[in-house]
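Protein data:
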Amino acid sequence: MEKRRVVVTGLGAVTPLGNDIKTTWENMKAGVNGIDTVTRFDASEYKCCLAGEVRGFDPALYLPRGEVRRTDLFTQYAIAAATQAYEDSGMTAESIAPERFGVYIGSGIGGVSTLIEEHVKMLEKGPGRVSPFFVPMMISNMASGTVALKYHAQGPNICVVTACATSTNSIGEAYRAILHGYADAMLAGGSEAAILPLCFAGFISCQALSQSRDKDRASIPFDKERGGFVMGEGGAVLMLEEYEHAKARGARIYAEMVGYGCTNDAYHMTAPDPEATASGRAIALAAQEGGIAAGKNVYVNAHGTGTPLNDKTETLALKKAFGQDAYKLHVSSTKSMTGHMLGAAGGIEAIASVLALHEGVVPPTINYRESDPECDLDITPNTAREAALDYALSTSLGFGGHNGCIAFKKI
C-alpha cells in the first residue's frame, strides 16, 4: 500500500503576540516582546511579576454569548484557534465525511480558573451553589470535545496531557492517525489559560519561573544569565490533512509533516535528564522518519524555556541527534517572545516552524546578550534571518520527562 502523506492546510492561534496568525507571525518575525507585567491579578508581592498574557481577546467572536459563560478560558482559546485553522484551510462540511475528521487538542492544566472559582464559591456559600457546569468547564478534554461538537467531527478525538509537550504530542499523534488511515483530516494543537495566583505560586515554589523584574531580561533562552521561564497562555491549532484529500479539494498547502519522535527520560519528576539520552533520541526519531540530515537548510524551533537545565540539556540533545552537524542548524526559541504557553507551547512553535519553512524566515531568539559555552549552537540572536530552508523541527521537553519532536518539510 502506498504510504499516505500528511500536509498542513490551516493555521490558527491566540497568543501574547496577537489574536490571530497574521499578527502573531508578523510580531514574531519583528522580534516583538509579548511579555509584560501581569494584569490579571496583583503580582507585586510575588517573586515573579511578568507573564505573556493574551490581550484584547473577545470570545464572542467565536461563541454565542450564552456559551461563553459556560466555557473556561482555555476552551475559548482552543475554539478560537481551531476556528481560525478550520477557516484558513478552506474546509467545509461537504468536503469531508464526519467520521474521517478528528480533533486532538490537549491542555497541560485544563480549566483551572473554573476549579478555583467554584472551590471558593463552595467554601463561602455551600455545596449547593456549585455550578452545574463546573465539571464540563474544568475537565481538560472539553476543549477537544467542544471543537468536535462545533464541526461535527466524529473521527478520532483525544485530549493529550503531557505538560509542556502536550501540543507537540497532540500534533504528532494526529499525524499518525492520518498516516495510518484512521482519519483524513485532524485539528491538532493545544490551549492553556493558567495565569492565576495559585499557578504562579506553585511554579514559584518549584523554582521554575524567572524572578527578573525586567521584561527584556526575563525570558532569555540560551543566555548565560537565564534563571527560569515566564508563564504564557493562549491556544494554537493546525489543520493536518491527507495529501490527496487536500489536493482533491484544491487546498493551499503550507508544508508537509514528515516525522514524529516521542520518548520519556524516566529520570525525574521535573528536571530533564542531563545526559539528554531520551530527548536526543526523540529528535533523532523525528529526523530519521523525515529523512532529515543536519545542514544549513534545517530550522529547529527549540523548546528553549530559559531555565538553566533545559537549555543546556536541549543543546546536548541536538548534538546527540546530529553530531557536529548540529552547529549547521538554524535554531531559535520563540518563547523569548511569547513566554512558555505550557500546553499550547508546542502548537504555536509548530506553527512558527511551518511558517518559517513557508516563507524562508527564521524567527529570532530575542533579548540575547550573554553567551553560554554550554549553549553554543546558532540560536539566531535578536534578529530574524532569511534562509533557504528545506526542513523544520519543533521540540518539546515536558515535566514528567515527556519529550516530543515533530518534523516538517517544505513543499
